[in-house]
Design brief:
Blueprint lengths: L1 E2 L11 H15 L5 E4 L16 E5 L5 H15 L3 E5 L3 E6 L6
Parallel strand pairs: 1-2
Antiparallel strand pairs: 2-3, 3-5, 4-5
Helix pairs in contact: 1-2
Amino acid sequence: MELKEGVMLGGLKLEMRKALVGAEKLWKAFGQVLTVTSGLDSTHSAGSLHYYGYALDLRTRYFTTDEAKRVAYELQMKLGDSYNVVLHTTHIHVEYDAILRT
C-alpha cells in the first residue's frame, strides 16, 4: 500500500482497517498497488466521515472504466452493508456508514 503525499491516516478508526485490507487484496488481484489518496486530510464536504476517521479515498486512475466499476462492486460485496463504496471519476470513496445508524 502507498499513500499519496500528505495523506494522514493517524486517527483512522479501526473499522476502516477492514476496508484497507480488502482493498489492498483486490487491487493486487487487478495487478495494481493500492494508493490511498485521502484519509483525515484534505477538504471534504461538511459532515464528511473523512473528518471522523471513517472514510478513505482510493486511487483508480490506472483502471479502465469497466475495471473501476468491477473493483468498486467487488469491494462493496466484500465489505457488506455497513460500508458505502462510491465510484467517483478519479477515485473510490469508502466509508463506514453504520456509525450514522447508531
